Amino acid sequence: MNRHWWHRLTPLRGHRQRGPLQGVDVEALLGRAERMADTGMIRAWLRGQSVLVTGAGGSIGAELCRQCALHGARRLVLVEIDELALLQVQERLHAAFPGLESVAVLGDCGDPAVLAHALGQGPVQTLIHAAAYKHVPLLEAQPREAVRNNVLATAAVAQAARAAGIACMVLVSTDKAVDPVSVLGASKRLAEQACMALLADASATRLAVVRFGNVFDSAGSVAQVFREQIRRGGPLTVTHPQATRYFMTITEACQLILQAAALGEPRAMYALDMGAPVSILALASRMVRQAGLHPQEVGMVFTGLRPGERLHEPGLPAQRQEAAPGIWRLPLEAAAPASFATRLEALREAVHRYDVPALQRLLREAAPADSSAPGPRYSRDSRDSNDRAHR
């Protein structure tokens, strides 16, 4: 078995992580203690439930599955397009939770037939939609796949949840959806709008949209890149000496996602409190020192901001209310099902034609400016927006 993969599924205890770099102190790297959710609230909500998780084999999806099992879910339906990831998550869950019933469904959650098959395996009370493409620079050149997977698949999931009478749908979102400057951010903002429109007040399905920033040591994260670069002896590549990001551990993010859903509100948008932004340069230096080396030995190379990247991600908006420790409730955008249906059809047609210019235009038009988080909106070339914003 892939031991490092299972490590990513295992909770971080004592804020220390055992992985490719031994003895990594995550609390020291992030400059704060890991937040702990109200596990009693989560357990009271999840106990005995049947939960469907899309993207179940990914870093976030796998940990959400484990947290659901840990907090009393009796049954998990695992929807995953990557066959190896699906096999691994199911085997690890069986090993850790012998009494847990799990159903593995290999397929694309954007395919209505796959969703119908998954939901036809038995009653499901909660659907957690974690499947998404998330790599900012890559998606800048792949707007068709970003829209297909992040927007249209999310709409398909929301429609299936409504049709099946699912009690609660949870959308795992991102802080990059706030005043988006990238294809990823704009596509996730559209995913949020799709859920709000399709699960409007007439729907019996509760909706919890949860935004948060970067997850430390998730697949493809900067921490994993730095680890590999340190292992090779350097240098470490940093985009910009002033770049900052918000980080959480996988465990705290997933526990707080579940606690937000457990709050029981009919329709809500939440943002997780990720503390102060972390300097990427400082993070790189700390990781080098924790590996027993000196930054000058390893070296640092500044590569410049990549397409779609911001120098700083927006912080929490002023218009917010504390829903629970570490969880903020944000104002809801007005859901307009009729107008969004027209927008969704235009996106679907552009995806069908592989019409990149039309998709870029639709992303620009559909990603509204967020007055609570001033900054450049999504543009065709977000590098220009970043340069203007941070000169």
Description:
A nine-stranded mixed beta sheet has the order 5-4-3-6-7-8-13-17-16, with helices on both faces. It has a two-stranded antiparallel ribbon with strand order 1-2. Strands 9-12 form a two-stranded parallel sheet. Strand 3, helix 4 and strand 4 (75-80) form a beta-alpha-beta unit. The chain has helices at residues 3-9, 26-30, 39-46, 59-70, 83-96, 112-119, 136-140, 143-164, 183-198, 222-231, 250-262, 280-290, 295-298, 337-353, 356-366, 382-390, and strands spanning 16-17, 24-25, 50-54, 75-80, 101-106, 126-129, 168-172, 206-211, 214-216, 236-238, 244-245, 247-249, 267-272, 278-279, 300-302, 321-324, 327-330. It has 16 helices and 17 strands. Mean pLDDT is 87; it is low at 1-22 and 370-391. With 391 residues, it is α/β, with parallel strands linked by helices. It has a single domain (3-215, 246-275, 310-390), classed as Rossmann fold, CATH 3.40.50. InterPro entries: NAD(P)-bd_dom_sf, Polysac_CapD-like, Polysaccharide_Synthase-Rel. Residues 378-391 have a biased composition (Basic and acidic residues).
